[in-house]
Design goal:
Length: 110
Amino acid sequence: KDKIDDACKGAKKTLDVLKRSWIAAGGYTLLRFYSTFCPHAFMDHIYSNSGAKFTLFLSNVPGFLKPVYYAGKPATRFFSLVTGSGNIATGINIVSMTETCQICITSDDS
């Protein structure tokens, strides 16, 4: 259990650095630009083919930093559904919440 905790803390530290970098802001800015200024047919083509070359999707979702209470009891789990565009067969989502880490895996038959 200690090795998993250390690995989760290390992964969280690395991903926190990435979240604060210009890479995330740049990707979001490009997405907004293309969805606003590109023709609709061109964007449909991009979206329909975006997952054609990939079989795996990986995401990190930051959760609550402090305990959240629901009906007077602290929430101990956070459920997330991994989704991706195109023909992505497997999705892995890492959710961190109040000093814990949860890994969600979604897959289809292909």
